[in-house]
Amino acid sequence: MTLTELKYIVAVARERHFGKAADACYVSQPTLSVAVKKLEEELDVKLFERSANEVSVTPLGEEIVRQAQSVLEQAANIKEIAKRGKDPLAGALTLGVIYTIGPYLLPDLVRQMITHTPQMPLMLQENFTVKLLEMLRTGEIDCAILAEPFPDAGLAVAPLYDEPFLAVVPSHHPLAAQDTVTTEELKRETMLLLGSGHCFRDHVLEVCPEFSRFTSNAEGIRKSFEGSSLETIKHMVAAGMGVTLVPRLSVPKEALAPKPRRKRDEDAFVKYLPFAGDPPTRRVVLVWRRSFTRYEAIAALRNAIYACELPGVHRLS
How would you classify the pairing of strands 93-98 and 143-147? Predict the structure, then answer.
């Protein structure tokens, strides 16, 4: 039994396909298949059920794959411990970020990391929360920046900041004449939402549950449309298709600048409105596997995040 063989069976279990697993491991499919078969013969158990269209893991195979993943993590930890003895921050850090945080935090964060820890470049992965949690579990990424809540996966969690939401309305909309907005006022509007899979969609629906009613005769909302990204939805708002909510960091600096320094209102296509009273917020956190041994790297990443500008959010320690 070798670590390479264990790596192969973990890849097959993840991909449910020998060809895709071979691509992920940068080997030919025959090489991977022979290694898996050899391991099955050595253990005298069947790890995978093979069919023409898919590969499934046997019940005993599931248990063996979990143990293989643990062994691979422990082997990687040996290398990390050796690196830490020389330079705790040496080597890349693989960071996952959800789609509604990445475009707004990463530009400043990458600059901070280059300035303060150039020996530890960030390898970045944008994805949905569910996918990033799976990648953490399998060791494909070292840590991730997520928004709570998310399924408890036994991860270490460090709070970063609480981020308020703002409403976005077309500049010609009656609400644009106001300085603030309420959830009751938004319930009468056409709401534009992110598509399924985005946790920010769920956050919006928590603020205004009425937006989950998709029938045309639903009280408090006429219709709901979906967009693929926050920036796409902002363009839809500008076109007059409806209103939406966005996190504070996604708001352009000039949009909330004092009026004497702002562009003329008629030159802006959308207006960002804070909520009256306590605004709805989301908590952004940094998560990593408890078995991850590069503690100094996590600390350096948190310090770099805190060094970012982060306008309008409440920093947490």
Answer: parallel
